[in-house]
Amino acid sequence: MNDESNKEASLVERVNKKTVRYADGELSALIWVDYEAGLFKRGRILKASSIEKWENRPDSFFEQIDEYHKKKIIEAVLQYFESKKRSCRLEL
Fold first, then answer.
1. Backbone angles phi, psi at 25, to 5 degrees
2. CA separation for the pair 42, 52 (Å, rounded)
3. What is the total count of domains within the chain?
4. What is the DSSP pairing of strand 27-35 with strand 19-24?
5. Structural contact between residues 66 and 74, judged by C-beta atoms closer than 8 angstroms
6. pTM score
7. Containing structural domain, residue 34
């Protein structure tokens, strides 16, 4: 089951327990999301360090994700978890 969240033209969907996919047109990236330590904690940790390379991209784009797109991805993923009523914090 994939959960999806639309923000303008971007889409965030769960791939597995610790991975979400960000997609915006022809661009997509896989993002690692960890869980807070502790048996009863349900918070997520968005690993900014995992936002490095595009999974799919047009030929005109560099493989490395630039700062502008990294900020868009972070905003979209945080909004995705907020829409699911799940806490998520950014880890740089």
1. 65, -125
2. 26
3. 1
4. antiparallel
5. no
6. 0.85
7. 4-91
| Token couple for 6 | 């639309």
Identify the residue whose tokens are 């900020």.
71
Q: How far is CA 43 from CA 15, 20, 50, 56, 58, in A?
A: 18, 15, 18, 29, 34
pLDDT, tens digit (0-9, with 9 covering 90-100), for 11-43: 999 999 999 999 999 999 999 999 988 877 778
In contact, 78 and 90? CB cutoff 8 Å:
yes
pLDDT at 40: 73
pLDDT tens-digit readout, 53-76 = 999 999 999 999 999 999 999 999
Alpha-carbon gap, residue 84 to 92, rounded angstroms: 22
Structure tokens at 67: 């700062």
